[in-house]
Amino acid sequence: MRKKIIAGNWKMNTSLQEGKELVNSIAEMIKSKPLKTMPGNPEVILFPPFVHITEILKITKKEKGVTVGAQNCHQSDKGAYTGEVSAMMIKSVGATHVLVGHSERRQYFKEDDNTLAAKVSQALDNKLTPVFCCGESLEERQSEKHFEVVKQQISKSLFWLDVNDFANIIIAYEPVWAIGTGETASPGQAQEMHSFIRNCISEKYGSEAASNTTILYGGSCNAKNAKDLFKNEDVDGGLIGGASLKAGDFFQIINSY
Ligand code: 13P
Predict the structure, then answer these.
(1) Which of 5, 50, 64, 200 is the most buried (most CB within 10 A)?
(2) Is 52 assigned a catalytic role?
(3) Known catalytic residue at 194
(4) Ordered mean pLDDT values, 10 residues apiece, the chain (257 residues)
(5) Choice among 43, 111, 174, 194 that is catalytic
């Protein structure tokens, strides 16, 4: 059965102090209303900057249903890659998830489908759950190529996996035009793409695998619009950027099923 998940991608924000304060506040709110009492029994995954992970884990390990991941990993297992972080390192500090293929990594760091496939492989080899991001640009949507683009992204970086490995993948659909712009995909647009992604998975791996895959929506998802997005059948939760930096807003999103 697929899970309801709310993930917070902090991107390159917060000092360690600010990050700890943020998580302490979220933890307090979850204490007052435990995740298991909320509709959908959601899980929460926090993606702080690498250097905060160990300290954030000290706070979250007391909170059932809250886990921590990294925003990226390198595509090689180790070696002379100054400044990079491997999946093994991420695993060794206790994180459980890793974002792969965020559009900011694709755009600013030129990560292509093959590199992302290698990152997925590294993550799985090190028993990390990849949260694989896909999504079209504004231009691609305007020229009605969005389905084709997303299908290519998931086919090239994920569909080489066997069905058992694919069972460990979480997908996040994040239309690039909606990220950080305040312009959210409408609930209809989100549902349409999520259902398309599920159909692609079904064609490749069968209907059971498709129905078990968690597909998150990301892109200007906030405390106001989360409920309308999450009530769609194929939208299993959210990957939240800006609104995950405000404890109250993030908690409200967690509580939006
Ligand atoms: P915003 O929620 O700030 O639009 O960012 C979404 C995102 O990129 C999450 O990974």
Answers:
(1) 5
(2) no
(3) no
(4) 96 98 97 94 97 98 94 98 98 98 98 98 98 97 98 98 98 97 95 98 98 98 97 98 98 96
(5) 174
